[in-house]
Write a structure and sequence with these properties.
By secondary structure, this protein is an alpha+beta fold. It has a domain at 21-86 and 110-236 and 282-346. The protein is 15% helix and 25% strand. The protein has seven helices and 17 strands. A seven-stranded antiparallel sheet has the order 4-5-12-7-10-3-14, with helices on one face. It starts with a strand and ends in a 26-residue tail after the last strand. The relative contact order is 0.24. The model is unreliable at 1-7, 11-34, 38-53, 244-263 and 360-372 (pLDDT under 50).
């Protein structure tokens, strides 16, 4: 990637990236101590809010309307995929945004060396999955996760909820796979979702499509809705590379008819300050309430068990998440919330790291379903 800098203007020639298609090999489950501390905070803390050790954080007002308008403009909008290497400097609008977010997060995030990123432009179902280095797993049996995964919500069509759902295992040491808390985060423009890189996550489309049975009047749309997000995987060492595309063997002189601008992309001119996130002091951290359970407020409650069912990446079997003591109306309100992130207790075995990764015969590309 070549760059020219003129004060606050950056002209970048981004190299194209090919979506990775590596295979993944299942490995044994080992619980991250960070998640174990989180589990204890849920079970034994009497506070109404989660502790600072929570593996999930949500911030609003991270991107200003002007910044989002700039990043989604015809000239600058890009959904990758690509890798931002911090030691090489920011050379694209997305690089500048990513660097500003990492700087804003501060603390342990400053150890990030590389960021694997891509985007989505429309609201579609994303099956439950984990982000992993699949080439390392299939070739060497090595399980590598990003340190953190970030979802940056650039723009969302009015009326679209499009929540991101994240499963957090909360079992004790002797019951690693028994219980989990499901965080439901509505898609809000300018919002930033941050969670531990090994966590299982997905997107229901429509928002109630994981309910069984699915409310019929909630499943029909005339066509795809707009939901523009960027997904950032942070790596302290190195981001996964695409094993099928070797840039070193890519010789532009082999084909005189090939236009260099078409291969490398046309030069992009932008003002760096316009695509940076807001200063950290302007971010609004959201207080994430403890997982919802009617049983805590009404021990005599005898509600029927509701179950969320979604496809699981790498498996033909659905991932079932039985919900604990929550009524249909309460679950509906959480999944269709306009802005407030909420937790649900569930019996899904989210601590099993064999769930949500591709099989040896599968690929990294996730199945998506538009408006079932």
């Amino acid at each position: 990637m070549s760059t020219d800098h003129h004060h606050d203007i950056v002209i970048a020639r981004p190299m194209p990236m090919v979506p990775p298609t590596a295979l993944f090999q299942t490995a044994l489950f080992t619980r991250h101590p960070f998640l174990r501390n989180f589990a204890r905070s849920l079970h034994y803390s009497s506070a109404s809010l989660l502790t600072t050790q929570s593996p999930i954080s949500v911030f609003d007002n991270v991107l200003s309307p002007a910044c989002r308008a700039e990043l989604t403009s015809d000239a600058l909008y890009d959904i990758g995929p690509d890798v931002y290497r911090r030691d090489q400097g920011a050379a694209s609008p997305q690089d500048v945004l990513i660097e500003s977010i990492i700087s804003g997060l501060g603390g342990g995030f400053n150890s990030t060396r590389e960021v694997e990123w891509w985007g989505k432009s429309i609201y579609e179902s994303v099956e439950a999955h984990r982000d992993v280095d699949e080439e390392a797993a299939s070739a060497r049996g090595e399980r590598r996760y990003p340190t953190h995964s970030l979802i940056v919500y650039l723009d969302v069509e009015a009326g679209v909820r499009g929540p991101t759902c994240v499963w957090v295992p909360t079992g004790d040491d002797d019951d690693d796979n028994g219980r989990s808390a499901l965080m439901v985060v509505p898609a809000i423009p300018g919002r930033l979702l941050v969670f531990a890189g090994e966590l299982l996550h997905g997107v229901p489309c429509p928002a109630l499509s994981w309910l069984d049975p699915v409310p019929a009047h909630k499943t029909k749309r005339s066509g795809p809705a707009m939901r523009r997000v960027l997904v950032l995987n942070l790596w302290d060492d190195y981001a996964p590379e695409d094993e099928e595309f070797d840039y070193e063997d890519w010789d532009l002189e082999e084909d005189e008819e090939e236009d260099e601008d078409e291969i490398q992309g046309a030069p992009i001119e932008f003002f760096a300050k316009k695509v940076e996130c807001e200063p950290r002091q302007s971010w609004q951290p959201l207080a994430l309430q403890r997982p919802f359970s009617t049983k805590e407020s009404d021990p005599d409650s005898s509600l029927p068990t509701l179950t969320l069912s979604t496809r699981s990446h790498g498996s033909d079997e659905p991932l079932l998440s039985p919900l604990e003591s929550a009524s249909h109306d309460e679950v509906t309100q959480i999944l269709e919330s306009e802005s407030t992130p909420r937790w649900l207790w569930t019996g899904a075995k989210a601590g099993d790291l064999g769930i949500g990764v591709p099989s040896l015969a599968g690929s990294r590309v996730e199945r998506t379903v538009l408006f079932d």
